[in-house]
Specification:
mainly alpha; 2 domains
């Protein structure tokens, strides 16, 4: 999708929304993002944090390091009976 098509689609999406709260949230999000300089968050990180983040990204691209959604849910949401 090129820029013109993307803008048209976005305008159509906005025009189809009748929820004022949702529209205000979109507006606030886009306004904040448009005022943020690219790389601003990255530049606030320490060199150590940047290196760890890059290492994490690299590791996440290796399928051997990935687990299924079901496995993750099981790790996070343990049954009260799991430890019995």
């Amino acid at each position: 999708m090129n820029t013109i098509e993307l803008k048209r689609s976005f305008h159509s999406l906005i025009d189809s929304i009748d929820n004022d709260t949702l529209l205000m949230n979109f507006y606030d999000l886009l306004k904040a993002r448009s005022l943020t300089e690219e790389g601003q968050l990255w530049n606030r990180l320490t060199k150590d944090e940047q290196e760890k983040l890059l290492m994490t990204l690299e590791e996440s691209e290796n399928p051997e390091h990935l687990i299924s959604h079901e496995e993750m849910k099981h790790k996070i949401i343990k049954s009260p009976f799991d430890d019995l």
